[in-house]
């Protein structure tokens, strides 16, 4: 039943541009949407997220989505957008599909190319948001449009959830979950902003990571205070020295080793292909998460330590008020990435115990923690099918990421969430948040095809409950 649908899809488009050389109608349309999205300066302070949402709304309307299923929810200078693709309901509760419309600030004078113009060059698409994550916004929109025009009726509702401040406060996702749960409630969610495929430096596919857990983000301020005084009359209880002593205690402390279903499976899979002592440590840890020697080796690797424990690190420092005065206060920011299942307050209390009662430890802003999502057989099977449709035979492994995305809010609200970005990239090509951000052209078009397979597998014919 899917073959005629695919043939129909290849023949249709909504206001599609003239076909670029070598592109089919779907690819050309996705490229056109991608180009428009990159041009919106959806950085903080620019007020462009609602403008971009309006552009997307116009595309969905032109494809046949009714206004009643397209929601733009203002939130200060930004906004969220929710689009519902109505299904029969025979397949169960809806599936939510996630991406964010905002990007990290880009200074054009530092870039080699205009960051807000999609540039195709040497096999790459360049531009702010190409990787993080306007590619995800694009592939979801393109697939909704193409499927709608082809007459596809899913067996369950599919809900696109576009947030507007993932790179800053994440208030828009918090608002959606708390105040608009009826719009986004789902059996589970698929996140374009996590997971994905890894290519070797010679371009061979190595592994696909299916993200089932992520660490919580929390900032704490450590503050010391003192009456101060004249710098010509130094005293022993100096606020800056006391803060320095506290920071050395934080540096020396290691949080307890932890593991879960995801990290054990990940280390088992990665250990099979990783050479040297790190690979051996991965294999040993997967066999026995209480192996202290293996945990110590992994803790020494910046790319692996976050998978074995909560981590906290000093990131900012300020103190004193005049060159010729003793400091009256000194403050450091400690950024923590909290292992799933650990309460934020537990981390604060641990830091307080390490630095002692003379140092104030305070949570800055709000932080949210969540447990890992269970490995759903239907999601694993559908992701495996979709990945193999573009990269045959690649191993699929669960992963826990040390970064944080909007997905943590869904998990905390009881909606299991899975990072399933279909992009395959080399580690050396990842410039998200940095200069000259780019993605491989082939990987972008593969991602469009991957999401077609994933959506039609999870909500197509034969998926009724």
Automatic annotation (TrEMBL):
PROSITE patterns linked: ARGE_DAPE_CPG2_1
GO molecular function: hydrolase activity; metal ion binding
Listed cofactors: Zn(2+)
N-terminal signal peptide: 1-20
Gene3D superfamilies linked: 1.10.150.900, 3.30.70.360, Zn peptidases
UniProt keyword list: Cobalt, Hydrolase, Metal-binding, Signal, Zinc
Highest taxon in the source lineage: Bacteria
Domain Peptidase M20 dimerisation: from-to ranges: 213-356
InterPro entries: ArgE/DapE_CS, Bact_exopeptidase_dim_dom, Peptidase_M20, Peptidase_M20_dimer, Peptidase_M20A
Pfam families in the cross-refs: M20_dimer, Peptidase_M20
NCBIfam families: PRK09133.1
Family, similarity comment: Belongs to the peptidase M20A family.
Protein name: Peptidase M20 dimerisation domain-containing protein
């Amino acid at each position: 039943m899917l073959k005629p649908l695919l043939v129909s899809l290849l023949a249709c488009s909504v206001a599609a541009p003239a076909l670029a050389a070598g592109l089919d109608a779907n690819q050309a349309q996705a490229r056109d949407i991608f180009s428009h999205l990159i041009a919106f300066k959806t950085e903080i302070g620019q007020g462009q997220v609602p403008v971009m949402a309006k552009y997307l709304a116009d595309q969905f309307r032109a494809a046949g989505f009714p206004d009643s299923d397209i929601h733009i929810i203002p939130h200060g200078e930004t906004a969220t957008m929710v689009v519902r693709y109505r299904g029969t309901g025979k397949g169960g509760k809806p599936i939510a599909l996630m991406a964010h419309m905002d990007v990290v600030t880009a200074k054009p004078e530092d870039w080699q190319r205009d960051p807000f113009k999609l540039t195709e060059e040497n096999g790459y698409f360049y531009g702010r948001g190409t990787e993080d994550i306007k590619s995800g916004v694009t592939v979801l929109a393109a697939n909704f449009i193409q499927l709608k025009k082809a007459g596809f009726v899913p067996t369950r509702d599919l809900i696109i959830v576009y947030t507007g401040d993932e790179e800053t406060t994440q208030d828009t996702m918090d608002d959606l979950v708390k105040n608009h749960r009826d719009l986004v409630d789902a059996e589970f969610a698929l996140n374009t902003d996590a997971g994905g495929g890894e290519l070797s430096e010679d371009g061979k596919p190595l592994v696909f990571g299916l993200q089932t857990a992520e660490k919580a983000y929390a900032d704490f301020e450590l503050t010391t205070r003192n009456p101060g005084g004249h710098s010509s009359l130094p005293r022993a209880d100096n606020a800056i020295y006391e803060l320095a002593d506290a920071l050395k205690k934080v540096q020396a402390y290691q949080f307890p080793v932890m593991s879960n279903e995801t990290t054990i499976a990940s280390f088992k899979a990665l250990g099979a292909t990783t050479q040297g002592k790190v690979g051996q440590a991965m294999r040993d840890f997967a066999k026995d998460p209480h192996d202290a020697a293996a945990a110590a080796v992994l803790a020494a690797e910046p790319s692996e330590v976050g998978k074995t424990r909560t981590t906290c690190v000093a990131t900012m420092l300020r103190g004193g008020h005049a060159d010729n005065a003793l400091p009256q206060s000194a403050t450091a920011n400690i950024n923590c990435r909290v292992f799933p299942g650990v309460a934020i307050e537990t981390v604060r209390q641990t830091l307080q115990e390490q630095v002692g009662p003379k140092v104030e430890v305070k949570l800055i802003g709000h932080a949210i923690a969540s447990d890992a999502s269970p490995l759903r057989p239907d999601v694993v099977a559908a992701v495996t099918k979709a990945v193999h449709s573009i990269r045959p035979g690649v191993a699929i492994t669960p992963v826990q990421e040390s970064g944080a995305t909007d997905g943590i809010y869904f998990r905390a609200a009881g909606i299991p969430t899975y990072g399933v970005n279909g992009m395959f990239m080399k580690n050396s090509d990842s410039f998200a948040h940095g200069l000259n951000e780019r993605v491989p052209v082939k990987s972008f078009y593969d991602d469009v095809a991957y999401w077609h397979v994933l959506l039609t597998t999870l909500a197509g014919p034969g998926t009724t409950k």
